[in-house]
Design goal:
The protein is built from 15 helices and 17 strands. Helix 6 links the parallel strand 5 and strand 6. Strands 7, 8, 9, 10, 11, 12, 13, 14, 15, 16 and 17 form an eleven-stranded mixed sheet that branches. The protein has a six-stranded parallel sheet with strand order 3-2-1-4-5-6, sandwiched between helices. Helix 6 packs parallel to helix 11. The protein has three domains: 169 residues, NAD(P)-binding Rossmann-like Domain (Rossmann fold); 162 residues, Dihydrodipicolinate Reductase, domain 2, CATH 3.30.360.10; 83 residues, Alpha-Beta Plaits (2-Layer Sandwich). The chain starts with a strand and ends with a strand. By secondary structure, it is of the alpha/beta class. The relative contact order is 0.13. Bound molecules: L-homoserine (HSE). The site of L-homoserine (HSE) has 7 residues, from helix 8. L-homoserine (HSE) binds next to helix 8.
Length: 436
């Protein structure tokens, strides 16, 4: 049995998980792969810690260039992250004829087209199951399991940090800042959580899923990205009273005009399975024309869940390394010469439903004025909630759910509503998806 030699770039949480799972399940993995898969070299700046983790089982170096240049190595696993040194080493590994496995969604969402083209030209594979939703095999499902389908839309909870924060805000009625601090204390959120809470990490993943679902290039720069930092506890409460939960969704949808690619807080009916995905868990709902809706659920991060995806890619490569490149699964699911140039729509052209909260004076006629603005804009109201003002107050909130309309209609109506003298502040707008 030929042994497949692997070099690891970075042995942090996921690298250590990969090393341990490979060792623990070595026999079964070899029986599946038809090859032994062996980590022979690890590069990490913290050489001492790396040596502690791997013992004397493989070489440890502090320079990734030694891994990508090592003629003994068949597959390079990139677990450094970011798009500086990681990009350089991935491109060098490809140039040296090595297959690459990476968990780096940021790198692929931004430089994916360049990296896949280089790999295609060189006849090597770049596998990235671990880049989207950690341990959930969603790349495999989209590229292979659902290959008969015309994918209509994908909606995913693809960031565990924000899902944990939203779950805690809803459960405990706490505000965003308080829950974020608690999440950092418990290790659910990074010391610098910007990419997670601003929706960037989810948008990287949604960009990759959109590319393989619709056969388009990776275009992170065209994604609409909104995080959860401005979300208020009061809106989570009102949404719940109306039968909805608020989740940070990554959405990729095919429409006759183009593709919607967006990440933002979204109301979803509480009765949907995906609305009940709580804590740091991930889930992806995929609608295909033949299969209908399918739902994938699991851990989106962590040492061994992510290692599970990394090793699945190693096994895939071990099985296909000797195959004619034309017979492998294309990097982006569609053959490179069959990619579509379908446009990604600007957010103003997106069509969805909306939750609107308006702080109003409790006066005669205010509701009539708001509803007439919506009617003039041909925005139909689906549900409404108005609370009695608190004792001694003359101000209250009106909450409206709209039927589907274009974002630019809603924006124009909101401007008119905010200009009314009886509307006392900004209108809060949150998009709503029925996912049916
Ligand atoms: N930071 C990500 C999350 C995990 O919170 O889901 C890695 O993508």
């Amino acid at each position: 049995m030929k042994s497949i030699k692997v070099g690891l770039l970075g042995i942090g949480t996921v690298g250590a998980g990969t090393f341990n799972v490979l060792k623990r399940n070595q026999e079964e993995i070899s029986r599946r792969a038809g090859h032994e898969i062996e980590i022979v070299m690890v590069a990490d700046l913290d050489v001492a810690r790396a040596k502690e983790l791997v013992g004397d089982q493989c070489a440890v170096v502090n320079d990734g260039n030694l891994v990508v240049a090592n003629p003994e190595i068949d597959i390079v696993v990139e677990l450094i992250g970011g798009y500086g040194i990681a990009k350089d080493l991935v491109l060098k590994a490809i140039a040296n004829g090595k297959h690459v496995v990476t968990a780096n969604k940021a790198l692929l969402a931004i430089h994916g087209d360049e990296i896949f083209k280089a790999a295609q030209d060189k006849g090597v594979m770049v596998a990235y199951e671990a880049a989207v939703a950690g341990g959930i095999p969603i790349i495999k499902a989209l590229r292979e399991g659902l290959t008969a389908n015309r994918i209509e839309w994908i909606a995913g909870i693809i960031n565990g940090t924000t899902n944990f924060i939203l779950s805690e805000m809803r459960d405990k009625g706490l505000d965003f800042d308080t829950v974020l601090k608690e999440a950092q204390r418990l290790g659910y959120a990074e010391a610098d959580p910007t990419f997670d809470i601003e929706g960037v990490d989810a948008a990287h993943k949604a960009t990759l899923m959109a590319a393989i679902a619709f056969g388009i290039p990776v275009q992170f720069d065209k994604a609409h990205v909104e995080g959860i930092t401005k979300l208020e506890a009061v809106d989570i409460r009102y949404a719940e009273q109306l039968g909805y939960r608020i989740k940070l969704l990554g959405i990729a949808k095919r429409t006759p005009q183009g593709i919607e690619l967006r990440v933002h807080p979204t109301l979803i009916p509480s009765k949907r399975l995906i609305a009940n995905v709580e804590g740091a868990m991930n889930a992806v709902l995929v609608q295909g024309d033949a299969v209908g809706a399918t739902l994938y659920y699991g851990k989106g991060a962590g040492a061994e869940p992510t290692a599970s995806a990394v090793i699945a890619d190693l096994v895939d490569i071990a099985r296909l390394a000797d195959a004619d490149p034309a017979h492998r699964v294309p990097h982006l699911a569609f053959q490179p010469n069959s990619m579509a140039d379908t446009p990604i729509l600007p957010i103003s052209e997106v069509t969805t439903s909306y939750y609107l909260r308006m702080p109003v004076a409790d006066e005669v006629g205010v509701l009539a004025k708001v509803t007439s603005i919506l009617a003039e804009s041909t925005i139909s109201i689906d549900a409404m909630l108005q609370k009695e003002p608190a004792l001694g107050e003359t101000q209250t909130d009106i909450i409206m759910l709209t039927h589907q309309t274009q974002e630019k209609n809603v924006e124009a109506a909101i401007k008119k509503i905010e200009a009314l003298s009886t509307v006392l502040g900004k209108v809060t707008k949150i998009r709503l998806e029925h996912l049916s």
